Amino acid sequence: MNCEDYRQQIAADPAFDGGAGHLSECADCQAFRAEMRSLNVKIGQAMQIDVPELKVPELPTIDATNVVPLTASAPLSKPAWFAVAATVMLAAVIGVRMLGIGVSYDSLAEEVLAHLDHEPYSLRVSDTPVTSARLAKVVPANIAQPDHSAGLITYAQSCVINGKRVPHLVIQGERGPVTILLMPEEQVDMAESLDGENIHGVILPVGAGSIAIIGTREERLERIEKSVLNSVRWST
Amino acid sequence: MNSSSAEADRKRRFDRIVEVFYPDMYRYAAWLCRDKAIAEDVVQEALLRAWKSLDALRDDDAAKPWLLTIVRRENARYFERRRLETVDIDNLTAAQAALLAEAPDEELSELREAIFELDDDYREPLVLQVLMGYSTTEIGELMGLKQGAVLTRLHRARLKLKDNVAQEERS
Question: Hey, which of A33-37, A80-84, A232-236, B109-113 has the most confident mean pLDDT?
Fold first, then answer.
């Protein structure tokens, strides 16, 4: 390690403790290290701004008994898509109205994209489908009409969108995971495009509700849209 | 478990996490947006988002990075919505100036101003490393950068601050 390498390391991370051999023979680098460590202490002090008193905003009521914990699904012995095909149900679930003030998003599209940001682990490439039991729990059969599969469902969670609980499913598309949010109480007048970082999608009006479908930029969503639309018949 | 009991447990968990990490959330937000008033708004929205998404946090030991990630996204969303202009150090709002006004002595005040003036790309990894105790790997994961890029930014950030301090001492 020479002086330049050492100084780059120590300036990037003053806690760096490598390069002992070089350091023991180089007084200039010893001085540089001392300078960087001293500067770092001062930087830490300068960043310690006063923090105002915590004011917790009014929190909406969440139906905590209805939260479905995430669990790993066991792989199926049959071809996964076949097993899941019979269990795909697209539906409305219990809408839990928020009390009080929630995060105010300018549009449903913004709320949907924000929600995706907060569940990045749902967007995994996987060939392990959710179990039928889990799917039935997230998309209750008494509210939904079972139909054919739109693809291999690898994630199912009951989530809150705009203050209402909605089924959040992830289907494995041709170019990666595709998110589907079934929103029976979110009426939109016309199809609305969604654009995010490396993703695109659409919110489609379906009866008195809507469905958001979001995939990677390369994903051709038309096929999935048709499949999902054909499968949904709001029963509420 | 009945509904009220489950909700009370959920609220206790939320309160416990927020009480511990609120100062980190606020300081991170303040150094991201360089405006105390906006930082408070961002943290308020982040708290609401955290409350609504709490069940996605499966391990409370991971609460800090989880909350800071939410703050980071809410900050980005705030600026996307409002499309605010770049901060001009010579024309600060009261809330921006307040961030600089509290330093206990002149040396720290000058250093705080120099940190304030760093480009976002340099300031954020520095805040994460110095103030939040993140490793360069963790910074890379949060910011979507390779470790080499993180090291470069941190190295340049400190050299800029070092030059700035030297310049102030000369003048």
Answer: A33-37
CATH of B1-99 given 3.30.470.20, 1.20.120.740, 3.40.630.190, 1.10.1740.10: 1.10.1740.10
Looking at the predicted structure, is the pLDDT value of residue A97 above 90?
A: no
Of B10, B103, B151, the CB nearest to A62: B10
CA–CA–CA angle A176, A153, A119 (5° rounding): 65
Gyration radius of chain B's alpha carbons: 18
List Cα–Cα distances, A180 to A51, B96, B104, B128, in angstroms: 40, 41, 52, 34
What residue segments make up the domains of chain A, in order of their start?
A: 3-47, 64-231
Which residues 87-126 of chain B have a CB within 8 Å of chain A? 99, 102-103, 107-108, 111-112, 115, 126
Condensed to tens digits (0 to 9), the pLDDT of residues A77-95 reads: 333 333 333 333 322 222 3
Residue of chain B whose alpha carbon sits nearest to that of A101? B48
